[in-house]
Amino acid sequence: MGISLGLVGVGMFGRSFISLFKNHPDVDRFALCDLRKDRLEYWADKYDVSETYRSLDEICKSDIESIAIITQPWLHARQAIKAMKAGKHVYCAVPAAQSIKECEMLVKTVKETGMIYMNGETSYFRPEAVFCRKKAEEGAFGEFIHCRAEYFHDLSHGLEEVAKNRWGEDWGRDKTGGIPMHYPTHSICFPVSVMKAHMIKVSAQGFIYPNDDWFREDTIYRNVFSNETAFFTMSNGATALICEFRRIGHPGCERTSGIYGTEGSFECNLAGAVWADKNGRQIVNPTRHHEWLPEPLATNLGGHGGSHAYLVHEFVDSVKKQRLPRINVWEAVRYCAPGIIAHQSALQEGRLLKIPDWGDPPE
């Protein structure tokens, strides 16, 4: 017997998950939910979905057992908390939270409700991350020394349109200038998931683009940094350098450009990927087909390096088997809390700050 699942939010990003969730063989009942009636009707008709809801409140009152939340980033934590308190298992797009308080409340809600929570961090299932985790499990890195990871996404590559779409009728000049380090999960996921360690301290700096008309003090974010760079100390003694750049002459990437150990190292850039040790180097091409998936997901991996299908299967399988997802709430807050503190450090000209942690998941 399969599960019932509702997808909340069928905007620019959410719509790309409709077929994956709907066609998963363990999803017996599938529904769509969106505030905009026209958009909801269009996608429901396109994918032949008969069950629809017009609000989170409405779907939370239904008997659907799990929901996937792919809405605006500032709504993620409060909506996930509300759904779990209503007795729903929750998949939520990144970032999991945008404040330390939200991180605390997410962990607390999972503990109190016993509901399954999974964060949809795409980098976890990117081929490079999976390759490096397997190398780490083999002991090929030796002791970890350092990791570099980046999320390069120039503003001109669709971010303006994304921001306007997210705010809809409420869009205005006061909504520009989102904080780069408040969306750090694509990069921070690499060192945390590969090293199986968390970040404990950070010193960060911000870059101010001359005469910037997007990142300004007179917005709701009060943020002038288009780019932020942070140097972290990890719980295992290693270090990590994280770059969140929104103004950069680059085609864009979500990658780890280097993970270094005492015995082996991995490097990746626009030219390709290399595994190296003390005896030499080898060009590698990590495969997107790195884990078993049911059909039709196995032949339709989706975007972000083919990660979408793996994310969908991980959540559906977790709900069906009532198991802890790999990207659980304790893992999720370790992807976003460091960025929140890093921005605070950047505002204080690089002051070294401690990063809170909520521990490991229960056994």
Describe the fold and architecture.
31% of the residues lie in helices and 24% in strands. It is of the alpha/beta class. The chain folds into two domains: 119 residues, Rossmann fold, CATH 3.40.50; 196 residues, Dihydrodipicolinate Reductase, domain 2 (2-Layer Sandwich). It has a nine-stranded mixed beta sheet with strand order 14-13-12-11-7-10-9-8-15, with helices on one face. Helix 5 runs antiparallel to helix 10, helix 6 packs parallel to helix 8 and helix 8 packs across helix 10. The two termini are 27 Å apart. The mean pLDDT is 97.
Share of residues in strands: 15-25%
Stretches where pLDDT is under 50 for at least 5 consecutive residues are none
CATH architecture of the largest domain: 2-Layer Sandwich
Q: CATH topology of the largest domain, anyone?
A: Dihydrodipicolinate Reductase, domain 2
Q: Can you identify the CATH superfamily of the largest domain?
A: Dihydrodipicolinate Reductase, domain 2
Q: How many β strands by DSSP?
A: 15
Q: Radius of gyration, rounded?
A: 20 Å
| Biggest beta-sheet profile | 9 strands, mixed
Can you list the strand order of the major beta sheet? 14-13-12-11-7-10-9-8-15
Distance between the termini: 27 Å
* DSSP summary: helix tally: 10
Overall pLDDT level: 97
What would you call the shape?
globular
What is the CATH C-level name of the largest domain?
Alpha Beta
